[in-house]
Amino acid sequence: MVEPIWYTLILSTLTLTLTLSTATPPLNPAVNHFQQYLRINTAHPDPDYTTAVSFLNNLATSIPNLQTRTLHLTTPNKPLLLVTLPGSNPSLPSVLLNSHLDSVPAEPSKWSHPPFSALKTPDGKIYARGAQDDKSIAIQYLEAIRNIFQQDPGFTPVRTLHICYVPDEEIGGFDGMDKFAESNQFKEMNVGFFLDEGQASTNNEYRVFYADRSPWDLVIKATGKPGHGSRMYDNSAMENLMKSVEVVSKFRENQFDLVKAGVLPNSEVISANPVYLKAGIDSGDGKFVMNVQPSEAEAGYNIRLPPTADPDLLKKRIADEWAPATRNMSYHIVEKGPLRDYKGRPLITATNDSNPWWTVFKNAVEACGGKLSKPEILASTTDARYMRVRGIPSLGFSPMKNTPILLHEHNEFLKDAVFLEGIKVYESIIKAFSSFEGATP
After folding, report:
1. Which stretches make up the Peptidase M20 dimerisation domain (predicted)?
2. Average pLDDT, stretch 313-340?
3. Has 353 been labeled as part of a binding site?
4. Using an 8 Å Cβ cutoff, are 209 and 374 in contact?
5. 353 noted as active-site residue
6. Could you give the CA distance from residue 326 to residue 348 in angstroms, rounded to a whole number?
7. Can you list the domains of the chain with their CATH numbers?
8. Which of 169, 178, 383, 421 is catalytic?
9. Alpha-carbon gap, residue 31 to 218, rounded angstroms
10. Is residue 246 among the annotated active site residues?
């Protein structure tokens, strides 16, 4: 039977309506750029910095008024990208925003989704290594500037603003920000303020960090007389090491009690966490010789000191209590960051009206409807220490609220809505800093 033409038209219209209603919504360009960047594997031990810098450079040059330079301060496979938004008054100290290119390794078998797929779930979660730490801010900086000029093509910044994308932050920054901060290119920039990465907030307030803890690697070594497993010796290597482990553990417990009691946050105590123990004689088959007491034993600790700590007092404690020479013990400390700036001051950025940069930052966040939590010391370490040691005011900030803290964890993700809201926050921050003409220290 031939259907009437009106019936066919109605059926076609219904089919088209259903198809449109179930079609995948168009990708937000900014979210798409974020996912593309996340798919570039910059995880250690073999980060693909070249592809990452090429991608970011192409993205930056697609935005009006941005200038780019690629620097090679160490080796060709460790590029640094510098993006500049020139201001009309180059005599004013500039503002530098920072994002590191690298990320920590991921174990794919322990993830719900491949860690470099940047898969987005129906509820907007984008799963990828680096989603929070810290590829989100890398793209947010650029998309914020793009939006500023789309909304106001005539916008003219007064103060020059730079963005740097640096390698190797996750392994200390020695071939990244450390080298850059020592370079002539950096000195020519006349940086007056530095904004670096922060961490997610589990509530409705944005977190901001005014200092980092400084990392030390401590190795304690004990020696003693070797002998048969049946003999009893005074001051054997294992006995001396275990006494030391007990003393350090007690110190750690006392510090941790302050945190658990709510007296101090985790970032304001000295943490001394054991990371390895090494002793015994290898039997050659992956096991140990069980009837021989070893002549050497050692333990490794990762120590984090807040800028308020006295490093000399801790060194004295280590020498007198943790590894006393009277018990045939020695120790070695690798200090991976300073605790004082070039004037001998603690590496702390003021978060009050004495610091005009803080006032501009705080007002900018509030102007876009955001709220800051109480400023904190970051429990870990960032590239900001290379600025603070030079006396440059520096804050750590990543606009991720109502988000679980997942940096360095399995199944790291960031919701697309949180990412997009962060762009709006940076629009306000970038406009405020680049328009700020007030006096600075």
Report:
1. 217-321
2. 93
3. no
4. no
5. no
6. 38
7. 29-212+346-435 (3.40.630.10), 215-305+309-335 (3.30.70.360)
8. 169
9. 42
10. no
